[in-house]
Amino acid sequence: MQLHLKVPNMACSTCVESITKAVKTVDPTAIVQADTKTKLVQIETQAAEFAITEAITAAGYTVTGD
Ligand SMILES: [Cu+2]
């Protein structure tokens, strides 16, 4: 399943790293692609969307609708 999330406070590559790490705590096999310009995060994962969203939020980021 592919998730498309918007993370408005993702500003730089360190943010991308933190978000990727957070996602991988939920699903180590997840593939994360993030664009700091569009603030869009594409995640290929078998995990539930709410679990991914929760992990990103816990890492200090805001997830809004696509
Ligand atoms: Cu950053």
Automatic annotation (TrEMBL):
Residues 1-64 form the HMA domain. Coiled coil: none annotated. CDD domains: HMA (cd00371). One of its GO terms (molecular function) is metal ion binding. It holds the Pfam family HMA. This is Heavy metal transporter. It comes from Fischerella thermalis CCMEE 5318.
